[in-house]
């Protein structure tokens, strides 16, 4: 069967046909459907089963993911996937190592941060994840990096500043100045209060709590997926990122953020308040667009422009509130 593809760039069909042929030769089951989901991630249906195949740059990264998800299951966290082995041997094709993951059939209504019910459910699942990983994080300290929010965001700011000659063509200079002021104020506060983000007890952090890494299965059970960015550190680092992710859906309201019980204790900490001010999403998305040379394409910049401009004044009010609190 010819590879089913949503990618229309020259050469992709030939590559996908070669890749399908390779998988076909290695699988113990006849592949009936083969659909790219995103780069190096594929939906595969055989006569009896359905899988997700995901590519990794190294065998070490693949084995870490296999081991980690197995440990999660063994230690009692069942709300995620497992790697399976339906192939005759390890899958390696044109420089990429591939792992095969059990398919979790998604619910007709996907998870998002549009409702407070979903936000609360995601927080509860994250809390369960941390509770389990706290029991075995010491086993992974030599395998995965330690979370470093200051270093990560300092580098992100440096790249954003380096991109200013391009950014000035898109963003009002006054807004650019304010964004950089927020970032500096935030980083200064994080540095001064750095011990807060280094305190044990540690857990294994998910590291990417975007809504698409929460998957609601057809049964209604919410699962946590994609552990490519796991790190060691205090759970506050995941909760900080979660707060950054949900605030745009809460109209940058401090009061609404404080409605969620797991956030309440952190909102009493100066270090957390300083960190909430950092415009992480705006810097991340602009840096990515410019790095991938996509900033000249209006279809690609539309979302980031909306992210930067549409809620700017709500974010400014939020920032002013944080300043008064600390």
Automatic annotation (TrEMBL):
InterPro entries per UniProt: Aminoglycoside_PTrfase, CotS-like, Kinase-like_dom_sf
Q: Where is the Aminoglycoside phosphotransferase domain?
A: 41-243
Looking at the record's lineage, which domain of life comes first? Answer: Bacteria
- Pfam families with a match to the protein in the record: APH
PANTHER family from the xrefs?
A: SPORE COAT PROTEIN I
Protein name according to UniProt: Aminoglycoside phosphotransferase
- In its UniProt entry, the species of origin is given as Bacillus xiapuensis
């Amino acid at each position: 069967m010819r590879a089913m593809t949503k990618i229309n760039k020259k050469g992709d069909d030939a590559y996908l046909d070669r890749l399908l042929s390779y998988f076909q030769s290695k699988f113990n089951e006849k592949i009936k459907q083969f659909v790219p989901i995103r780069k190096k991630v594929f939906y595969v249906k055989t006569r009896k089963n359905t899988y997700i195949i995901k590519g990794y740059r190294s065998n070490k990264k693949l084995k870490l993911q296999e081991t980690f998800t197995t440990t999660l299951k063994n230690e009692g966290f069942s709300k995620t996937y497992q790697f399976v082995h339906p192939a005759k041997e390890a899958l390696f094709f044109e420089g990429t190592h591939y792992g095969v993951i059990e398919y979790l059939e998604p619910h007709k209504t996907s998870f998002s941060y549009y409702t407070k019910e979903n936000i609360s459910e995601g927080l509860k699942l994250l809390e369960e994840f941390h509770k389990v990983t706290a029991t075995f994080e010491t086993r992974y300290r030599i395998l995965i990096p330690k979370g470093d929010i200051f270093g990560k965001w300092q580098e992100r700011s440096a790249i954003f500043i380096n991109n200013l000659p391009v950014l000035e063509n898109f963003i009002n200079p006054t807004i650019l100045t304010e964004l950089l002021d927020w970032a500096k104020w935030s980083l200064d506060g994080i540095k001064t209060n750095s011990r807060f983000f280094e305190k044990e007890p540690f857990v294994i952090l998910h590291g990417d709590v975007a809504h698409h890494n929460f998957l609601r299965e057809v049964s209604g059970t919410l699962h946590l997926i994609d552990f490519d960015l796991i790190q060691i550190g205090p759970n506050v680092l995941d909760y900080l990122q979660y707060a950054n992710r949900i605030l745009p859906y809460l109209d940058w309201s401090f009061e609404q953020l404080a409605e969620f019980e797991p956030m309440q204790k952190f909102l009493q900490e100066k270090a957390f308040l300083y960190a909430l001010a950092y415009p992480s999403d705006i810097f991340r998305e602009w840096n990515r667009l410019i790095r991938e040379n996509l900033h000249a394409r209006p279809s690609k910049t539309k979302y980031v422009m909306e992210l930067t401009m549409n809620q700017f004044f709500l974010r400014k009010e939020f920032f002013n509130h944080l300043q008064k609190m600390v």
